[in-house]
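Researcher: Re-running this chain for the archive, since the previous output was lost when a drive failed. Same request as before.
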Amino acid sequence: MDQEDLKEIVDNLRFLIAVNDKPKLKTLLLSTHPADVADIFTHLTEDERDFLFALLPPDVASDVIVELDDFHRENILEDLQEDRLSELVDEMDSDDATDVVADLPEEIADKILQSIDKQDSAEVKELMRHDEESAGGIMALEYVVVNQESTVDDAIQEIRKKAEEVEDLYYVYVIDNDGKLVGTLSLKALILSAGKKKVADVMERDVISVHEGIDQEEVANVARKYDLVAVPVVDAHDRLVGRITFDDIVDVMEDEASEDIHRLAGISIDEEIHEQSVFKVSRVRLPWLLVAFGGEIISALILNNFEHTLKQIIIAAFFIPIIMAMGGNAGIQSSTVIVRGLATGEIGLLHIKRQLFREIRVSLFNGSVCATLIFLIVGFWFKDINFGVVLALSIFIIMVMASFVGASIPLLLKKFNIDPAIATGPFITTANDSFGLMIYFALATLYLLYIS
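Model: Regenerated structure tokens:
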């Protein structure tokens, strides 16, 4: 749905709400995909959202809730009666139901779990015991499983039996008598195989699975590496306990990318963009700005200590912005490449030396090019070959050092199991500014001593 269509639908809905035409409103909402309904809701007032949401039947309303962002979902859920909440949770898959119940106040969550189907309640409680950012926390308990001694006909019967419960079917999972995952059965294999043939004879034995306790980011890396649309989840004894489907994997990728972008900018991953007070947003961002502020105060003190050099070589002041910018940009480039590589799994701890040396080689080349350019500019524009050499050498050293710092800090933090994204932003930029100025003015002072 493009923006013009969205605006037209929103305008139509507002008109129908104004004239209280519930039949047409319901028809329009039911003819629209739940994801688009969720998008429409974000452009309405709270009263308009509540009015329209009340018109939706439980099965559609539950799909819309799942598609909403956290902010708008919480706004709608907090206004719902407990019986309506119970209806919605009962309609959801176990993983989506768990996400909703986990966000409710504890007292209300307990009442909801008592009022919904006993099996659904047990499944939600089972999933809630896992860390919400682990494989167990994002897995669903709806899947099709057969024993390896079963026949193809048995597997097809099991699919028919679970058809209503399992909405998106990608694989049939195969277990042994101990419940251990031993294979997967594709729909293609089922269709092409004789009905009396044993599942063990047609299944794929090379199973890619994840442990229930691993981080969700690692799940996304596994799915990406092996091109999986669903990932089976096993416990410590390799027994099948759930599956993670592609839609949840995409959500994880989006969440992790958003988290890294927030941290690269030096702001909290919990900061909401909707209707937050200025004070709350400032309270989150200000500490990181103060880190940068402190670093730049150090830079000012460095400049103060080299006041004599600045007075003697006025031209040195003209190039301070270039020195600071080139060092900061080189450091951010290297750290961004490393952080992204670590997040996607393209860079592992076994490749630290190789990646570090690669970044240094790149910085040597880039530094040489930039140093040559600044030498030519100063030498021919300002007619000062000697200072051109000082400036070129400064930029070369600063860019190489900045790239080394930008690449090594994320790798070092990763080695100690600390999120490397936290090392970027204000920390890298501030460090490069301070060290860059020290190097620049140290060389300029040596040059001043030389010419005097």
